[in-house]
Amino acid sequence: MDDQRDTTDRFLPRFDAAGLVTAIVTDADSHVLLMVAHMNEEAIAITRETGQAHFWSRSRGSLWRKGETSGNGLTMVEMRVDCDQDALLLRVRPAGPACHTGRRSCFYRRVEADGRLTFLADDAQG
After folding, report:
1. Which secondary-structure segment (H or E) carries 75?
2. What are phi and psi of 12, to 5 degrees?
3. Fewest 10 Å CB contacts: which of 5, 35, 43, 66?
4. What's the CATH number where 32 sits?
5. DSSP readout, 21-33?
6. 88 to each of 29, 70, 103, 115, how far by Cα in Å?
7. Does residue 34 lie within any of the structural domains?
8. Could you report the per-residue pLDDT of 80-95, keeping only the tens digit for each?
9. What is the pLDDT of residues 48-75, one digit of tens each?
10. 40 or 5: whose pLDDT is higher?
11. 114 in any annotated domain
């Protein structure tokens, strides 16, 4: 095994060809999955420096701080990295809904066996 990322005590994120890693975001208190986004090296550095979650927007091609327009920021409690360092887990305290739709989580619909989507009542819009 040439790559020791799974045994080292050093943070060495494995970025994809676009320079990104997947970031899974959960509520630090309730453990609810809030969102999935992407981070580049700059987003990781700024998040670690400020304690406020920053991400890379693939659609806009720019860095953004969650909540910069809505006020619904995410204060980082802890950042974890998976075994081969190609995905991050951010445990956060949200200052409001995490989804741009106004819902607590971006995962507010269940895919049914017939392909329909069922809106989940426990994550109704704010």
Report:
1. strand 74-81
2. -135, 75
3. 5
4. 3.10.20.810
5. EEEEEEETTT--E
6. 18, 24, 23, 30
7. yes
8. 999 999 999 999 999 9
9. 999 999 999 999 999 999 999 999 999 9
10. 40
11. no
Q: Is 72 exposed, middle or buried (0-12, 13-18, 19+ CB in 10 A)?
A: middle
| CA pair distance 7, 73, nearest whole angstrom | 33
Domain count, the chain: 1
* Within-domain flag for 113: no
Instruction: Write b or e for each residue in 32-59: b if 16 or more Cβ atoms lie within 10 A of its Cβ, otherwise e.
Output: bebbebbbbeebbebbeeeebbbbbeee
Q: In this structure, what token pair is assigned to residue 21?
A: 């890693």
Give the domain extent around 54.
1-96
| Residue 85 DSSP class | S
CA dist., res. 64 & res. 76, Å (int): 15
